[in-house]
Each structure stands twice: as C-alpha cells, then as structure tokens.
Amino acid sequence: MKKLLTQASCLLFAGLIFSCSSATDSGDSSSDKTNQSGQPIPSINNIEGLEFGGILSTILFEFETVPNFPPVQFAMGYAWFGNGEKAGDVAVNQQPLSAESSSGSTWYTSFSQTSPSTLSNVSFNGSKHIWGVTGDGDVPAFDVEVTSPTGFSLLAPSTGEIDKSNGIAISWTGGYAGATDSMLVIVVDLSNSKTVIKQGLPNNGFYTLSAEELSDISGEAMIQIVKYRYNIYTTDNKFYQAIAEIVKQVTVTIN
Fold this sequence. Notes:
- This protein is mainly β.
- The protein has one domain (5-254).
- It is 0% helix and 49% strand.
- The chain contains no helices and 20 strands.
- The protein has strands spanning 5-9, 12-13, 29-31, 41-43, 51-63, 72-81, 90-92, 95-96, 98-102, 105-109, 128-133, 142-147, 154-156, 161-162, 168-172, 182-189, 195-202, 206-209, 219-234, 238-254.
- The strands form four sheets. Strands 5, 6, 9, 10, 14, 16, 17, 19 and 20 form a nine-stranded mixed β-sheet that branches. Strands 1, 2, 3 and 4 form a four-stranded mixed β-sheet that branches. Strands 8-7-11-12 form a four-stranded antiparallel β-sheet, with no helix packed on it.
- It is globular and about 55 Å long.
- The two termini are 34 Å apart.
- The relative contact order is 0.22.
C-alpha cells in the first residue's frame, strides 16, 4: 500500500488504493488552494515523470443544516484541475458539477453550504463512481472511474472528555485484515489548528494515537476518520486522481 500527501481546507484534512500507478507519500500535510471543498481530500505527492493534472473527488460527509440539530449526511462531488484551470463540462455518474471561480481559479462542485443538497445517483456501497470531463485548453477530455468504499460507523471515541495520558484509542466498524480500503486519522486542535495526521493506515478497525503524538493538542478538538479508495488516469505527462471517500468525525475535549 502506497501512502499519500494530504491536503487541507479550513480545519479539515485527509488521505487512499493504487490501481494504475506508483506514487510516494511525504507523510506531511499541506494547505493549498487546490482544495476548495471544505472536506478532506487526499493528494498523491509524486508519480515519477508526471505532473499533477487534477483531483476528482466524491465525498460522503455530515453537515449541520440547522444549529443544535443532528447533522445530515450529504454526498458531494468536487474537482480541481492544474492551477485552477477550466476543464469544460465535469460530471460524475452523469450528474453535472457547477463551475465556481475566484481570484482567477476555477473549480467544480455539487455542494453549496448556503443551499445544501446531496449529489444524486452516487452511492457509497462499493459501486462505481464514473467521472466524465469534456476538456478545455490544457485539460484533455477523459473518463475515469473509482470504486466507492462501503459505509462504516465510528465506535470510539465518543463526544466528551478524553485523558490523553494513555493515548486515544480509535475504533470503527467494518475493518478486517486484508481490506482494500485505507484509513486516515486526523486530530485538529480547534483553538490553534495544530494537527495530528496518521495516513495510509490499514482498514483493520482500530488505531491508537500515542500521548506523545497528542502532546500539542489540548482542549476542544475534532477527530476525523476517513475511509477511502482511488484510481489514477494518466496522459503522457500528467496524472489525474479520482477519489471516493467517507468522512466521519466527532468533537471531543482532550485533557
């Protein structure tokens, strides 16, 4: 299993299965403009001899539509190409994404925080997510598909206070030896954005963060668990990364 470089947007971060190409992972995280989704998106650090061409991501996540009410689950599509280049029409499972632009960059999304709705015809049950790009300028026309992960539940920790002196044990459903998914564990200190990221983890159902790893985290924190798969489309000089992922999160107080 190859690992990944993780990108971040806002306070949310993340991390993938290789099917076509070989890549490496720096083990670090970076926050840059390629992720305008507001959700975790993994990014391949390097494929030898190829330049980054773009990210096409389907994400299942929870969003609080009404304050103090339980969050609602949404599926969204998001795509970014090159340095924010236009790519013509972009769709996943024949559902078109809207193009948005800012400061000379363009990205594609199906989700709006001001008018949230879920992406139809896209399921997270081991089904195919098929992307179609008509292309524009330096972005070629291409199709790429990725098999989605199946749903899971976060078992521990739950909301409340956690003593980090013995580390934090994290567990989830559906893990087993030899699973083809990968997992990413992220802890974000909500007061200062200090972050712990453990990526490329096997989907075996559990992971423990040590007290040493959590030394800079104190007070209210967000813990995210991401289950993901991906596929790569390559041209003569670029690679495009298609990702399908499910995000679970819980807010805790770490002492």
